[in-house]
Structure formats: C-alpha cells, structure tokens
Amino acid sequence: MSFPTTAVILIALAIYACVYLFYGRKVARDIVKIDPTRETPAHKLYDGVDYVPGRWPVVFGHHFASIAGAAPIVGPIVALAWGWLPCILWIWFGNAFIGAIHDFLALTASVRYDGKSIQWTSGEVMRPRVSFIFSIFVYITMILVVAAFANVVIGIFVGNGAVATASLLFIAIAVLIGYLIYQKKVNLVAMTVLGVALLAAAIIGSLQIPLAISRIPWLVILFFYIIIAASLPVTILLQPRDYLNAYILWFGLAIGGIAFIVVAAPMTWPAVTSFNAQVIGGLHSPFWPTVPLVIACGALSGFHAIVGSGTTSKMLDTEAHALRIGYGGMLTEGFLSTIVVVAMGAFGLQYMVSVGGFASTGAAAAAVSSGLGAWNVPKLAMFTGPYAMGLNQVFAIPITVGALFASLWVCCFALTTLDTTNRISRFAWVDILTRGVRSEAARKSSPFRFFTYKWVAAAIAAGLGIWLATSGGAFSALWAAFGGANQMLAALALMVSAVWVTNVLRAGKFRYAALIPAGFLWITVVAAGIWYIAVRAGGAPTLVIMGIMLALAFYLLYEVVVALKKGPKEAV
Amino acid sequence: MKLQSVWRFVKDFEGGLRSRSTEYVEFELREMENIFSLLLVGSFIGIPSPPSNISIKLMPYVVREMYVMGRRAGDMDDISGEIFGLFAP
C-alpha cells in the first residue's frame, strides 16, 4: 500500500476538522455547557498581572508552545516499528477521543474553578489526598523525563557531533542574548535578529567542528548542566533560549508542514509489520496495550492538563475559546506527530539505505519488519534524516543542513525539557516533603532544611534521573517508562475530569464521553505497566518505579469509585 | 480584509509562541513584587521596617499591589499547580 504523503496529510486534516466540528463541539455544548457570557477568571479576577485575558490566537500560540516539545517527535519514531498505519491510527484516535477531551476538560474545569490547577481540582472534587498523590506522580514522572530526555540528548550528541557543537553554541548565544537584553537593555527586535542570525551561523559553522565525546562523559556533563541550568535565574538561560526555541518551532513546523504536503512522495515504509513487533527494550511488544507507552504526547499527554489548568485557564477571554485552544491545541500537536510519521513513511527507507548500509529499500523494509534493533541507524536520525530529505526535495535545502536543523530542534527542546523538568522536580520534592512532614519543629530542623535547599533538591532529581539513564535499561525501555508515567498522569487527570463531569456538571448520559476514555486509558496503561514488569522490559530501578506507579494507579481507582459513589456535588 | 485577518492570526499565534518564554520573567517579577509588598507592610506584620508612618503614606500608591497580594494569599494552596503549569515540559 503506497499512499502519497499528501493523501495522508489531507486525511489527517479532514479527520481533525470532522472531530473538532462534530465531536468537540458536542462535548463543549452538551457536557461542559460552554457559556460565552460566563465570566472567565481572566475577567473575574483581572489584576493586570496573573489574570489577563488574551486574544485567542495569542493564547493558542502560548498554549501550543507549552505543550509541544520533543516528545511528539520521538515517540512516533520508535513506534514505527509496528508500521506506519497502526501508529497514525493510534495518534488520530488518541487525539480525537482521549487527548483532546482530556485537555479540553482540564482547561474548562480550571476555568470554572477560578483558574485553579487540575491538581487542586482533584482535591476539591475527590479528596485532598488525591492532590498529594498528584504531586508524587509528578515527581516520579519528572525523574523519568530526566532519564529519557538525557538519553535523547546524548544519543543525538554521540551520533552527530555537529549537533553537540550547535547545541552548545545555542546555549552560549542564548546566554549572550539574555545578557544584552536584561543587563545592557539592548533593543529586543535587534537582539531577536541577532539571535536568529547567530543561530543560523551556528548551524552552518558547527558542521565544520563536530564534537567527538563518548556517552559517559556526556552523562557527567549533563548531570552538572541540569543542576546548574535549573538553579540559575530564568533570565540567564531558560528564558532567552525558550524565546529563540519559539522561532525554531515556528520555522520547523512551517517549512516541514509545507514540504510534506507539497512533496507527494509515496509512503514506502511498511504499513503494518507485526502486532508483536520488537519495540520496547528489544522485546516483542503487543501493540495494545503498550502503544501509549511509546507514542505519548503525540496522541495524549498528562502534562497538557497541568499546562492548561496552570496557566492557559488564567488567560482565556471567554469560555467559547476553550474548545479551539484546549481541544484544537491537542489536534495541532497530533498533526506534528502526523508529519513525523509521514516523513519517516516517505523517506525512512531511503535514509536507511543511504546511511544504514542496506543494499536496497526492500532490504531496509525487511529490517524494519524484524524490529527496532535491526534498523542499524540511530533512532532519532530516523526523523531528522527523512525530514531533511523532504526539505531537500521541496526547498533544495542541503540534507546535512536540514538534518542538523531538525536535530537541533529536537535537542533544544530536550535540553529545555531537562531544565524545566528539574525545576518542577525541585518544587514537587519540596511540596511532598512539606506535606509529608507535618510538625513545625521538624520543618525547622537542619535535615529538612538541607533536603529542601534548592541545590540539594535539584541534585537529587538530576542524580536520580542520570542514574536511571545509566541503569534503567535500553533507550526504548526508558522511553516507555516515561511514556507510562505521562499516560498515567493523563489517566489521573481524565478521571478527575470524569468525576467533575459526573458529580458537578451532572452531565447525565453524556458523562460517558469522559468516563469511557478515562476507563479505557486507565485499563490500557495499567495493562501495559503489568506487561512491562512481567517481561522485565527495563532495568531493576525502572521496574520498581513502574511498580510504585501501578500501586498508585489502583489506589486512585479506589478514590474515583468512592467519589462517584458519593454522588453529586454543588456546581461552581 | 481576509488576508489582513489571516496575517493578524499568524502574528498573534507567533507572539503567543514567544510569550511562553516571557512568562518566566513575569513570574520572577511577581515574586519580587510580593517581596516588595511584604517589606512595605512589614511593620503591620511584625517586621520592624519601614516605620508605620512611611508605610501609611505609601499605601495609596500600592492599592493594586495590595489587591493582588490578597488574592495571591488565597491562591497559596495551589502554588505547586501554578509552578508545574509554568514549567511543564
């Protein structure tokens, strides 16, 4: 089956348009009962600081930049071992019926609770201890994010030294731009032009000076980088780099989107390989239930509930915008994953022939069907290479430059993820300790103060993450553990939303639009977790973490049942 | 007219992409405002600085800050949620 890429992208757009117009709108109308005249927190609590209404494209851009990182790119790459068709079907299905509903309900619940987070809402519609479990989940997830993304970054750096050079230059450029803007008060527009120009020069220049450093030294460097980056004031590195990242995302999406719509190449990648393809940790992994462990953020993500309820809800001008921002934002991220699948589907085999030593695309296709281990090409290069080939065919951009740009795109987002993740870990760590240690005297004690000191808290999270990166198992196994934690977080948020829809909104039969995906996701992720432990997919520490998450998942189910049995609560 | 609205959408969306990074700075600024407000009303909560008469003279100029502080005090039970939302990967 050789579909042209254009057909796949047009089908994706048609599906997204249909589910948005028919399903999304129905959910908004019949379940949440969106009321454009109801005051949003941005108006009700307007203070010009925290609560400020924004024009919807601005809020949409802000929300999208917050939810789109490296994960919707990395997940589909690994999952293509099952073939492109099941992957893309899972992305579309997950987007339409789970992910977008999850994001939309988390956002609207927060809007109805005056901009409070999903974590706070969980304590409100269920019991306060659920909010505590939320913090534990967040902490565990962040440790796994550090492990998985450290592997992503190091995999790229070791595979292509030029990307390492470009990434380090990018950090230096970001620090320089931040210094000139904040310390020297140089004009922002001039600095933006300078930053983007230096970035382009770094991409071209780094091809001449690739860094050749092996995995272990990179792990050590990354350990210190994470601690320092996460403890520095945001204006030194995080903010200027994220500012420049926005241009990379914007540019990458725009030229990639155009290229793969226009190129009309046939999808030569095997449509389906095997239900039990070798994916996670080199083991035969059943597509269901393990697919959400691999394709995480591209189909649905627990982080989106945190973003939507933490910041987006405070910027919403009217409830009428919630659908296009919450539901539409998830569909847009799904479209990004669709482009990744299409890029690999069209050019993946050619790329394997050109760099993997395969004699023909037929031989490469046979290797794909044998499982992830037989690809003979660094996994992340399977996106960057085919992406560059698409750009080359449409815009005549040299493949080496295109591939370096795509690698830098993934790396910069992964590095920012490591930085922000470690910051969250610090806060989550302090939150857990503060809630766990009730006595005021104990909180004032030296050990408590030591363990909650920012450098110590950052070092603990970085140390655990890097240790997991070295002893937690193969890249695909660690990635699956991160995916599992993320999806469990999504199941948790969706269950909270389902309880809200049932008990507070009293949505009658429409409550099943939230209850069914919540139940399906919980069953899927728990089954995948049990499979992960049963076949020992990862290293011992990862298995222990997965076990803790499963225990928490069962406890959470108990809390949901208790909350649903309690019955209706007063609407807000 | 339609082209203009498409251009405005693109501009707004692009501005939104960039605004995520600006939010980090806003958060830090808010923290500094909190500290300033606490210093200003220090004498009312037991911090012996500045003298009450100076605080009272300055108060009319920080009405908005006082309102924001009051609301933030109510939001303190959700501070983790706000920070997770700000830095979510």
Structural features, described:
The complex is a heterodimer of chains A (572) and B (89). By secondary structure, chain A is an all-alpha fold. Chain A has one domain (5-566): Sodium/glucose cotransporter (Up-down Bundle), CATH 1.20.1730. Helices cover 74% and strands 0% of the residues of chain A. Chain A contains 23 helices and no strands. In chain A, helix 22 runs antiparallel to helix 23 (540-566). The longest helix of chain A is centred in the C-terminal third of the chain and has 38 residues, at 399-436. Chain A is globular and about 65 Å long. Chain B has 89 residues and is mainly alpha-helical. Chain B has one domain. In chain B, 76% of the residues lie in helices and 0% in strands. The two termini of chain B are 38 Å apart. The relative contact order of chain B is 0.08. The model of chain B has no long low-confidence stretch (mean pLDDT 79). Chains A and B meet through helix 3, helix 6, helix 7, helix 11 and helix 13 of A and helix 1, helix 3 and helix 4 of B.
SSE blueprint:
The complex is a heterodimer of chains A (572) and B (89).
Chain A: H1 5-31, H2 41-44, H3 56-67, H4 71-79, H5 84-112, H6 118-125, H7 128-159, H8 161-182, H9 188-206, H10 215-231, H11 238-262, H12 287-294, H13 302-310, H14 322-355, H15 361-370, H16 381-395, H17 399-436, H18 440-443, H19 446-451, H20 454-471, H21 475-504, H22 512-534, H23 540-566
Helix pairs in contact in A: 1-5, 1-14, 3-14, 4-14, 5-13, 5-14, 5-21, 5-22, 6-7, 6-21, 7-8, 7-10, 7-17, 7-20, 7-21, 7-23, 8-9, 8-11, 8-17, 10-17, 10-20, 11-14, 11-16, 11-17, 12-21, 12-22, 13-21, 14-15, 14-16, 16-17, 17-20, 21-22, 21-23, 22-23
Chain B: H1 2-40, H2 52-58, H3 63-75, H4 79-87
**Residue fraction in strands of chain B:** under 5%
* Tally of helical segments of chain A: 23
Portion in helices of chain B: over 70%
Distance between the termini of chain A: 52 Å
